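User: I'm preparing a small set of examples for a lab meeting where we compare how different chains pack in three dimensions. I only have the primary sequence for this one, and I'd like the structure in token form so I can line it up with the others. Please keep the answer compact; I'll paste it straight into my notes.
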Amino acid sequence: MNRRGLILSVLALGVAGFGGATWFATRPGPVAEAEPVAPELAEAMIRPYSPILGPAEAPVTIVEFFDPACEACRAFHPIVKDIMAEHGDAVRVVIRYTPFHGAASEEAIRVLEAARMQDVYVPVLEAVLREQPRWASHGAPAPGLILQIAATAGLDAEAARTQMLAPDVVAILNQDRADVETVGIRQTPTFFVNGMPLDPFGEAALRRLVAAEVAAAQS
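Assistant: Understood. Below is the structure token output for the 219-residue chain.
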């Protein structure tokens, strides 16, 4: 299973998005040097349509390869919020969809993109992650359950049924799948900070790497 989490807002495809947020934070310690991804992979890391949380011009970018059906992604959701709260306008998060859990992941991504069109992305994302044990592929959820869950967070489910099939949504899924292959992503969540992979993976390491990049940007 590919497991690991996050929250996000939106910037893309001409659809209005959401801005930052306010959360609790902790203090990270020192971090080791990391090597950025190869230049030929840079384009595959971030696309113009990718959902963004935080200021568009923030000097530190966390890219998360994210599967909404991933249990570890759900677990990392509050951690990333804490990191953003600690560093404020210095950090933004870019989400890349990584549907490793098959049909359940793809349906959730389509629901999130419909929510983006309706300007209810953040509350729907919160609901989708909160109720993940009910709808994700680890059981046999009732058909349409994720849409019902999203509707409790403000999604117009009837409109979403059409929006989920829009060519733009299909294009996003296809491009993100291709970029996942190009970058070599094998598990979720996978994080990059200013193009540097998080290695070793873990909460403490993510906090340290972000803090180091913020300090470097502010020096």
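A couple of notes for your slides: The radius of gyration is 16 Å. The chain has one domain: 39-218.

User: Perfect, thanks.
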